[in-house]
Amino acid sequence: MRTEDRPARSITSFQHPDDVFEALFQSIQGGEKHVRPPIVLTPDSPFLQFIEVGYALRACLEDRSRRDYLIQRLRPHLSAIIGTLPASLLPHGMLPRTAPPPGFRPLEQISDAEVRAWLAEDGSLIYGEFQRYELDNYFEAIAPLIPPGGVMVDLGSGLGKVVMSAALAFPFQRCIGVELMGYRHAMAIERLHVLLALARQGLAALPSPLTPDTPLQLPFGGPAHGSHLLDLAARIAFIEADMFKVDVRGASLVFMYSTCFGPLMDALGDKLAREMREGALVSTTTYALKHPAFRLLHYFPAGTIAWTSVMLYQRVGPLATLAPATAQAAYEPDPEAWEERVRRDLAALDGAA
Ligand SMILES: C[S@@+](CC[C@H](N)C(=O)[O-])C[C@H]1O[C@@H](n2cnc3c(N)ncnc32)[C@H](O)[C@@H]1O
Q1: pLDDT digit string (tens) for 133-160?
Q2: Are 266 and 214 part of one and the same domain?
Q3: C-alpha of residue 39 to centroid of ligand 1, in Å
Q4: Residue with the nearest Cα to atom 12 of ligand 1?
Q5: Can you give the chain as a three-state secondary structure string?
Q6: Domain count of the fold of the chain
Q7: Ligand 1 centroid to 180 CA: how many Å?
């Protein structure tokens, strides 16, 4: 297993398809540190309810006299909070800074169910991705299980790194990314344009032009043909949508960097069990897919493929014959320890203000 990125081979000219592959992989930049712009507050924003509840929670955080109330409202939902204070409530969070429009409710008028749903969404919008060497490890691990053809779907595809890399690495017919946040989707499209322009440039510069039938050796996934690179634009798609509203019936591999999806895992397991066909694969990070429709094929503990654990599952059995999934709490921090941390974090925020 790699523990760091391999040294980048400098590509000064395109002599061989391997040079094109190498240049294309190198062009897919890491997005972990990208700037998170605030969510735009418009009347038709799909995030309107998220912003309303967020404003209500943040108002309590900013008013010292209402902090006990904030803690009291968050406390029943610790299993849905990633970290100590929800990310969107922190100064660098993505909630807009503009004044709330008339009609937004205070926290007192917002139900526990809404707070819980907000916390789950807040966590799921946190960004993270595999480092390049982790992605290489992951691809090496799954390569023997990827037959030619098939469709790979990344649910929550962020800036598109896994989708574009998978389209290069493996003989998938199509790789599709589904991303909820408009600006991340737009960044993925921008990055795809860069990738495709480079692909065109590299292919045009090859001394012997690639034809659709030219035999190719894929960097991870065995043999393929020239069409693998020539059709790259048609083989990659990004969709701006809620992953719960996108049907993944045709997917042969669903990838999820699910490290921040803890509270969503049961709902995701249920969705995937209903939609995916027998034999199809699902991979998750950090959180298990505890649905009986999925058999664990491989478990890679934290610190092997990646810093966190990676699981690979296969869809088994017809849904009708399966026992219903049992709900699982993702994790449940000790409320006293959590409250102590929250108060410490609030004091630190006051100090920094
Ligand atoms: C941890 S990032 C992973 C990005 C990408 N899969 C990767 O590994 O490079 C998770 C992404 O899921 C997106 N997300 C969260 N909830 C979503 C939903 N309901 N539908 C679609 N995308 C969602 C977030 O905005 C975020 O960009």
Answers
A1: 999 999 999 999 998 999 999 999 999 9
A2: yes
A3: 15
A4: 156
A5: CCCCCCCCCCCCCCCCHHHHHHHHHHHCCCCCCCCCCCCCCCCCCCCHHHHHHHHHHHHHHHCHHHHHHHHHHHHHHHHHCCCCCCHHHCCCCCCCCCCCCCCCCCHHHCCHHHHHHHHHHHHHCCCCCCCHHHHHHHHHHHHHHCCCCCEEEEECCCCCHHHHHHHHHCCCCEEEEEECCHHHHHHHHHHHHHHHHHHHHHHHHCCCCCCCCCEEEECCCEEEECHHHHCHHHHEEEEECCHHHCCCCCCCEEECCHHHCHHHHHHHHHHHHHHCCCCCEEEEECCCCCCCCEEEEEEECCCCCCCCCEEEEEECCCHHHCCCCCCCCCCCCCHHHHHHHHHHHHHHHHHHC
A6: 2
A7: 7
